[in-house]
Structure formats: C-alpha cells, structure tokens
C-alpha cells in the first residue's frame, strides 16, 4: 500500500483551522437548539452560509486582509460566531464600545 507524503505544516494548520471552524459552527447551532433559543433569520442564514463556504473553499472570506493566513473565519465572522454562541448560552451580550462607568 502506497501512502501519501505528509502534508506541509501550513496545509495541516489550514485543515485544522477548517475543522475547528466547522465544529464551532455546529456547536453554536446545536446549543441554540438544545437551549430553545430562537436564532434570528439572519443568524441562521449566517451559520448556514459560512459553514457552506468553509466546506467548499476551505475558508469563509475572500479578501486575505480580512483574516489571518491559514484561518477559516475572518475576525468579524469569529466575533459574530461568539455573539451567537453567547446568545445560545443565555449570556448577556458584551459591550463593544465605550467605558463601563458613567461620567460624573
């Protein structure tokens, strides 16, 4: 039996990032379903389209400046995925901008 030569370290890292992204997308949807949290139409479509692009192309963004090399999701896609996961867990959304305290 002839074996394939081992993949380059970069290729192995890219495949691992692809598997991690697909698993995170599946976990987010599954946790929302189990918790009974209704995702908005946009959130459901986001999870479907991103997972389809990762399966087809290996990553979910076209512009290389939007994400790190070898990553499957861009920075904003990763942030939205974290927000959907937090919503599914019933956590309060984190504040993105501004200070925590009030001004005197």
Word description of this protein:
The protein has 104 residues and is mainly alpha-helical. The protein has three helices and no strands. It is globular, with a radius of gyration of 17 Å. The protein is 57% helix and 0% strand.
Mean pLDDT, nearest integer? 85
Order of helices and strands: HHH
What value does the Rg take, in angstroms?
17 Å
User: What can be said about the biggest beta sheet?
Assistant: none
How large is the share of residues in beta strands? under 5%
Count the strands? Answer: 0
Give the CA-based shape. globular
- In terms of structural class, how would the helical and strand content be classed? mainly alpha
Question: How helical, in percent, are the residues?
Answer: 55-70%
Low-confidence stretches: none
Gap between N and C termini: 75 Å
Tally of individual helices: 3
The gist of it:
This protein is mainly alpha-helical and 104 residues long.
Key traits:
globular; 3 helices; mainly alpha
Layout of helices and strands:
Blueprint lengths: L8 H27 L5 H17 L17 H15 L15
